[in-house]
Amino acid sequence: MRYSAFRLFTEALRGNRGWRPAWRDAAPRSAYDAVIVGGGGHGLATAYYLAKVHGLRDIAVLEKGWIGSGNVGRNTTIIRSNYLLPGNAPFYEWSLKLWEGLEQDINYNAMVSQRGVLNLHHNDAQRDANVRRGNAMRLQGIDAELLDAQDVRRMLPFLDFDNARFPIRGGLLQRRGGTVRHDAVAWGYARAADKLGVDIIQNCEVTGFRMQGGAVVGVETTRGPIAARKVGLACAGNSSRVAALAGLRLPIESHVLQAFVTEGLKPLIPGVVTFGAGHFYISQSDKGGLVFGGDIDGYNSYAQRGNLATVEDVCEGGMALMPMLGRARLLRSWGGVMDMSMDGSPIIDHTPIDGLYLNAGWCYGGFKATPGSGWCFAHLMARDEHHPVATAYRLDRFASGRVIDEKGQGPHPNRH
Amino acid sequence: MRIPCPHCGPRGHDEFVHHGDAAPQRPPADAAEAAFHDFVYLRDNPAGPYRELWFHAAGCHSWLVVERDTRTHEIRSVTLARSET
To answer: Which helix (H) or strand (E) holds A283?
Structure first.
C-alpha cells in the first residue's frame, strides 16, 4: 500500500477501514543469505539498502525485543554533518544527503525538518575553533555559516547573551542540519524493507554463532537456529555482548546517555542550539516539548536509566544558556545504552571471522548516522569492500594508530 | 548511586571520578605491540558484575576498586586499589 495525500483522503471517506499493518510479523525461516542482528535504525536501514541497492532478497533482521525499542527511539532526534576530521565529514555528509531524500525514497513521513543546528561560542578560542571547523566543512562541500552575536540575538533573543561568565559571542550554523521524528525512521525503514521481502523477526534474541572451519555459517536464537552466509551485527549498546558470543573483544564500553523533554509549549526554539560552555543541546519537537540532553553519565552501564547527578548537570547547562527554561516543567527523561568506542568514532568493518561483519561504536552520534550507516554497512556486506565514505571506520585502526578522535580525548570512552 | 568509601562512608557518585575497568594490567615494557593494544583498547564490557576503578576526587583522594553490577548499579564490594597491588 502506497501512502499519499489521495490515499489519506479516500481512507477518510471509507472510515479508515483500509489501512493494513505496515510490515509483516515474520516467523524465522531456517536459512537466509544475510542475517542482520539488531532491529534498530541501523539494522533496518542496512536490510533495506541490501535489498534495494544490492538486490539481495533473502534477508532477515533479528531483534531481541521489538523494533525501535532501543536507541533509535531514545535520542534527541538531531541530524547534522558538522564534523571536522576527514575520516568523519564525508560519511556524515552522505548520511545527511540520504536524510534529505529519505521520505520520498521510503514513502514514509519521517518529519525530516532542516531547521538548522547552531553551535554557540563564548570566547575567542571557541570562535577560532568554530572558524576552523566551518572552513573544514566548506572545503569538503558542507554548508557552514559563522554568526556573530547580533545574528544569534535576532534568531534566539531569549538566550542569556550577557551572562557574566559565559557571554554568547556568536556561533557556527549548519542550516541543513535539523531534526527527524525518530520512531518514524525505524517504522519507515521496516515498512520499506518488508516491502522488498525482508523478514523482520521480533522477540528473537541471538544466543550464539554457528561456526564451520573458522567462518560464521549462522546464528543460534531463542527461536531456533538460523543458517546464513553472512551475518552483520548492528546492535550498538550491546555490541560487546554479542561479539563475545563469537569470541571477540571490542574497543568499546557501554555507557548510558539520558535525554529529557518538557511539557508541550507554544513554538519557541526555531532550530537546534548547543551551548559551548557546557555540554547541553536543545530543540523543540513538533508536539511542542523542549527536547534536550547533555553528557553521558560517565560509568559503564547496561541500565536504560540514568542518575540524578547528570540530570542536575544537564539542567544547570540549560539554565546557564536560557534561564527561561526554569519555568518549564520536565515531563519525561529516559536513558539509552551507548557503544562508547575508544576514540569516539564508529566501526563499520569486517571482523577477523569470515562471514561476520561489524557495525558498532556509535557513541552518542548514532541517530544522525542511521541512513549512512545502513548504506555503507550494506555496501560492505554485499561487496566485501568498504564504501568510499566509510574507509576510516576500520576495526584495526586502534592497532595501526589511525584513530579518529574528534574531541582529542584519548582512549577513555567516558570522555568522548 | 552512592559509593561506600572505606574512609568517608557512603557518598554520592558525583564525588568520584570513574577510571574504567580494573582488570587490564600494563604489560612489561618489552612486551609485543599487540599486548599494549589489548591493554589500552580492548575491554570485556560485561553486563553484570564488573570491577572498576573510581578516584574519590571530592573526598579522601583514594583510588578504589568497586565491584558493581552494570545492570542494576548494585555495589557488592569496595576496596582500596592500593591493597590489591
So the answer is: strand A280-284
